[in-house]
Amino acid sequence: GGAGEYAVDTGVFASRMARGSKHWSPPKRIAHDPFRSLGNAVIWSAPDKATWLFYVVRYGETWSTSRIQAKISRDNAKTWSDSFMISDREGDMVRGRPIVLSNGSYLLPIYNERGFDKEVVGADSVSTFLMLKPKSSTWVRGGEIHSANGNIQPAVVEIAPGHLIAYCRRGGGYDATTSGFIVRSESKDGGISWKAGENSTFPN
Question: 96 and 153 in contact (C-beta within 8 Å)?
């Protein structure tokens, strides 16, 4: 929330509904940067009961200048840690929740948006993934999904041990089109490498 997508005061807000209640609490800001706008908040409850908040911090005029930061809560999202960097690679953004792989690792779907344009996603934009072993403190970058027109915002599922399928939003502009389709890719090694993204049968 904030004055607008590109406003500096844009932050992440949360509202709670207590068990048994029918009402949400007033929104409370839980992440803020006094100099940069935030976006794409993702909340996820991990198997170890930690609650993660991932979000994007925009460093320049377009989202292609973004980085990914996070906070952790150990008390069911009532209080939060200080923010910390998940990826300082320019253009990295988050949009979907992590999944837990069959080997116990966490897989966070992210993407690297390129083009430095407010209305067009660059054709060289790629979906990619960060992996974290539960007892580790370092997210490790997995493989990238490349496609003809670029792709972003992957959603991923593991259908068998190590066998992943991802569907991604296509690159390009935001105008209505009959030629844009959701991009599909597969990994057979737990996200280390990915096949080239191809158009699925689903309209974007």
Answer: yes
Write down the residue that tokens 């999904």 correspond to.
Answer: 145
12, 31 contact by CB (below 8 A): yes
Q: Tens digits of per-residue pLDDT, 36-57?
A: 999 999 999 999 999 999 999 9
pLDDT tens column, 56-88:
999 999 999 999 999 999 999 999 999 999 999
**Residue 118 CB-half CA count within 13 A:** 4
Which residue, chain included where needed, has tokens 């005061």?
9
Q: What is the DSSP string of 83-126?
A: PEEEE-STTEEE-S--EE-TTS-EEEEEEE--S--SSEE-TT-E
The pLDDT tens digits of the residues spanning 92-125 come to 999 999 999 999 999 999 999 999 998 899 999 9
Work out the burial of residue 11: count CB atoms within 10 Å of its CB; fewer than 13 is exposed, 13-18 middle, 19 or more buried: buried
Please give the C-alpha separations between residue 176 and each of 92, 168, 199, 204, in angstroms, as whole numbers: 26, 17, 17, 10
